Amino acid sequence: MVRILSQTKSASVNPLKSSQPLGAALAFLGIDGAVPLFHGIQGCTSFALVLFVRHFKEAIPLQTTAMDEVTTILGGSDNLEEAILNLKTRTKPKLIGVCTTALVETRGEDCAGDIADIKLKHAEELAGTEIVLANTPDFSGALEEGWAKAVSAMIEGITRHGEQARQSKKIAILPGWHLTVADIEHLREMVESFGLQPVILPDVSGSLDGTVPDHWVPTTYGGTSIEDIRELGAAEHCIAIGEHMRHPAEVLQKMTGVPYVLFESLTGLEGADQFFSLLSAISGESVPASVRRRRAQLQDALLDGHFHFGGKKIAIAAEPDQLYQLATFFTGMGSEVAAAVATTDMSKVLGRVPAASIQIGDLSDLEALAGGADLLVTHSHGRQASQRLGIPLMRVGFPVFDRLGSQHKLSILYQGTRDLVFEVANMFQANRHAPTPEKLDPFRKQETQDGARSSPLTGH
């Protein structure tokens, strides 16, 4: 059984994780006409905004309540009210997603009560705009928890309660934060190929896919509509992807009775097979020929690629669900997870990661554990460790700011797994070193030394 090793350092040397508010804001960015609002000081928002812009290379509508020294002491409810009213007047959003930061959480502010009062006091002014609160303190959890809390909050605050008439072809999909724009687009296409109608919450493929509108839009444009969220209870089934999406799926089931199935990973042949079997069972349709062809292509890629993976040592640092996704992929290909570092120990999926131990820590922990590895797998902040260790870096997760197109990389189902096999195998080939005679024959040096010691020319 995998051992979970707690963090013992009092400081983060090279940070690995991103905060809960950032994860919640990312989820809100997957909603059409939304504006995430950080309730805290300006610095919290500025830091998150820099990471978003560098990763997506897009304009990000992230706002702040801009608390100062006085409001930190006396309370920030007035700032929250002013920010919400200003956003409504200037940008007319369909959704304002309030993400609390460490400041207001440590102070113990009643943000839910404040928002309820604001809604009641300004009911007419705020008509047509949903206000959703996600309690996301920076000092607890990480990006993964923030994303899940925001999705749960949107379901609780917007979706109609009670069981509704089911639409037999409607499927609710709750993707984890680690699915890229390309992953979600591909997911939608595959579900639609069975004649089903997916409603994806959140849908960053509609709002962060790199399209340029013909006029300035102060909110997100594209993504899940508020009406789709409101009618989520009419879905026949719900599919959640990633352990951190279990709670949002449970919230939806409790509120509306919609049953859910959770997939811990859609990367790899087994997970993809189970996913398409489920779609076939729900729709009553056979698996399309195009999907079966992609499966055959993946089988061939697995045969071609496993020669390059066998015996390789991999060092991975990521959020728990992404760590599980990647670790199971590499071990399935015959590699060994020699070092595993996670951001938080709050996820049950860590106990199923195929590694001897998992260190809860940062990228300095990864660097200390990764000696002798053949590949580092983490986000762009791992590039310094890669250079110092002389080990190639595969960039995954968030943020990836020193490469273009990270959001358009596919890594799930048959096609994504095939592309992932090729990408990693090519990295191994590009960084392959010719074996020395000593490596080919470890006894060669010893035999040479023994021969030298017994040679009559040496006088011994």
Automatic annotation (TrEMBL):
Residues 451-460 have a biased composition (Polar residues). GO terms for molecular function: oxidoreductase activity. InterPro entries: ChlB/BchB/BchZ, Nase/OxRdtase_comp1, Nase_Mo-Fe_CF. Gene3D superfamilies: 6.10.250.1090, Nitrogenase molybdenum iron protein domain. Residues 435-450 have a biased composition (Basic and acidic residues). Pathway: Cofactor biosynthesis; Fe-Mo cofactor biosynthesis. One of its GO terms (biological process) is protein-containing complex assembly. SUPFAM superfamilies: Helical backbone' metal receptor (SSF53807). Residues 19-428 form the Nitrogenase/oxidoreductase component domain. It holds the Pfam family Oxidored_nitro. Residues 433-460 are annotated as: Disordered. This protein may play a role in the biosynthesis of the prosthetic group of nitrogenase (FeMo cofactor). PANTHER family: LIGHT-INDEPENDENT PROTOCHLOROPHYLLIDE REDUCTASE SUBUNIT B. Belongs to the NifD/NifK/NifE/NifN family. This is Nitrogenase iron-molybdenum cofactor biosynthesis protein NifN.
